[in-house]
Structure to design on (114 residues):
């Protein structure tokens, strides 16, 4: 497991989400500025991803790498965990008891015709 002090995977996940919050405030009468903004954010995220994996990823290890885990609300079991593993990546949010406390999701889907 390679541990770094910079939260690379969290930055890769949150950069586009945080950048999207600025879109409603960009003046753009013809729609071109938002397209260029989105392209720039996407490219910046791609460059960040390439740098993080080029510098801190070891393809010879079969364990989880770039592991990050932050506890948000321990009383409810809510935490943020992100890791990268060889041959597939795992980006997950562990909401513990919140997800366990949602019975009946299948019933609602059937009532709605799904």
């Amino acid at each position: 497991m390679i541990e770094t002090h910079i939260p690379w995977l969290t930055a890769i996940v949150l950069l586009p989400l945080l950048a999207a919050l600025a879109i409603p405030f960009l003046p753009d009468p013809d729609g071109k500025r938002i397209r260029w903004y989105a392209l720039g954010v996407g490219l910046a995220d791609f460059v960040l991803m390439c740098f993080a994996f080029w510098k801190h990823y070891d393809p010879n290890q079969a364990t989880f790498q770039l592991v990050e885990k932050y506890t948000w609300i321990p009383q409810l079991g809510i935490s943020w965990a992100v890791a990268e593993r060889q041959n597939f990546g795992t980006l997950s949010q562990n909401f513990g008891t919140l997800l366990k406390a949602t019975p009946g999701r299948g019933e609602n889907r059937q009532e709605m015709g799904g």
